[in-house]
Amino acid sequence: MTKYKLFHNGKIYTQAHGLVADSMAIVGDTVIAVGKNLERDDDFSKYKNINLEGHTVIPGFVDSHTHLYYMIISMGNVKLGNINSIEEVLSRIKSHSSKLREDEWVTGEGFSPDRWRKFVRPDRYMLDKITGGRPAAFFSKDQHMMWVNSKALKLAGINKMTPHPKGGAIEKLEDGEPSGILKETPGYFPVLKAISKAGNKETETLYHKLLRELYGNGVTGVHAFDGSDALSFYIKISKSKKPGLRIGYYPPAKTIADLEKMGISYGYGNKYLKISGVKLFADGSLGSQTALCFHKYIGSKDNYGIEVTPKKGILSYIRKASRLGLPCAVHALGDKAISNVLDCLEQAPALANNARHRIEHLQLLRRLDIKRLKKLNITVSMQPSHCPSDIKIIEKYWGKRGKDCFIFNTLLKNKIPLAFGSDAPIEPLAPLSGINAAVNRPIPGSNKSFYPSEKISIGDAIYGYTAGAAYAIGMEHVQGFILPGYVADFIILSDNIYKTPVSKIKEISILATYFDGNLVYKRKECIIKT
Q1: Is 199's pLDDT higher than 50?
Q2: Where residue 201 falls among pLDDT bands split at 50, 70, 90?
Q3: Which SS3 state, helix, strand or coil, does residue 313 take?
Q4: Helix crossing, 200-216 with 230-238: angle to 10°?
Q5: Are the C-beta atoms of 404 and 363 separated by less than 8 Å?
């Protein structure tokens, strides 16, 4: 591949102080110059010239919250999202089950009773009738609840006598038998242990298959929140000839002792992999009614959510991680969970080397906690695509408190750094859709917006998927901008997104994606001679 490239006749949005260039020079995997009419400069006379034909160029998107490894190993799962009834869900599971070996697990994700035409609480017996004696387990859309059959419960050792685990729940029927609904990781972890994983060779093949999908969405990097089994895979990929992605990995906080034994501390890795911190859970999710709140869920007797990790445990993890220089990324969705995390971070040891604590999701926030977020300089990692997706259940379970949900604009006005992502596979890993959600906050099925005062500009939304994502993992000096010395990860858009009416954002597409200065994706209709 050509090492020296000069891109010209474009609109290159560098993300730095509003600077828009029309040309840039790349040597290998690094941008070495941006400016005006560089093609006329003798210093670049021997570079391969690529005419951008007036198209818009922005840094490659980085999704700040994914479960990348799970996406890879679950590519063969049955998908249950966007289905409107329990009958359709069961029909799809039955069809999928019939194609599997008799001893093979039936696995999938995406079911959401709140989104069905008629709410029905699933149970184990529904699955027993259609899975042919195979063990079966399905994640809910938010992945905070698992629906399993009787065979899966037996293999996991969960029965009538099994108590509720701390930080989780085993839903039970009137006779005391498990219903087949398990909540939060402590609730369904025994099932996960029983499920066999894909082999390494197959996993690597699936990874490269997934890369093609990511490039088509302009994604050149992700922040990955996966189990400890992902670490060896990420290390292997990062050292391969074609790593294909920049990964900021947050292993579970419970593995801190193992990380220390392995000599892993903050920043471990290379330019394709960085151990960026550790992940822990303060609460659950809205869809599963386990997000921890100050007020009870509408329609419940006394459900305030689940405190997955008590404050004492959160603070202990923060202190242990700090000994390795590792910040914490804390899942906190409900307002009480967020408040608990801030209480702990106020007591946290100082971090160095651009290591930054972050809160994941921050869906429902008390306004009085905004000042604490700012004072502590906490990065907030949010998923704009959750906003339109969750409106229905926000109104159902939180009612008027919806005004304090997804408050993008308020946070930016208070100069709180935002990093945007998708929580894929819970929502599609498609940053342009996330940008549309942050800018327009559309209410599905209408032409109205969800609390429109919290809309943000196109520029701010793009920043959240580029420079904001780089800042969250302390890499803003080499990623997230198109500037000299930065990695040559960028995308070419079909239209100038900055000048496009906000109602037309959905019509913009990715024409080409470059990673490490090399073309990795190009649409057929792209006329640019790359």
Answers
A1: no
A2: low
A3: helix
A4: 70
A5: no
Q: What are phi and psi of 50, to 5 degrees?
A: -125, 115
Q: Contact, 127 vs 148, CB < 8 A?
A: yes
Q: Which two tokens stand for residue 272?
A: 């394709």
Residue of 116, 52, 69, 68 whose CA lies nearest to 90: 116
Confidence of residue 484 (pLDDT cuts 50, 70, 90): very high
Q: 23, 64, 68, 57: which is closest to 467 by C-alpha? A: 64
d(CA 298, CA 3): 60
HEC assignment per residue over 436-495: HHHHHCECCCCCCECCHHHCCCHHHHHHHCCHHHHHHCCCCCCCCCCCCCCECCEEEECC
Mean pLDDT taken over the chain: 95
Alpha-carbon span 184 to 200, nearest angstrom: 27
| pTM tops 0.85, yes or no | yes
For residues 336 and 348, give the distance between their C-alpha atoms in angstroms, rounded to a whole number.
19
What are the structural domains of the chain?
A: 4-60+486-522 (2.30.40.10), 77-194 (3.10.310.70)
Confidence at residue 115, expressed as pLDDT on a 0 to 100 scale: 84
Q: Is residue 68 predicted with pLDDT exceeding 70? A: yes
What is the distance between the alpha carbons of residues 464 and 417, in angstroms, rounded to a whole number? 8
| Token reading at 156 | 């996991």
Give the residue carrying structure tokens 């007036």.
54
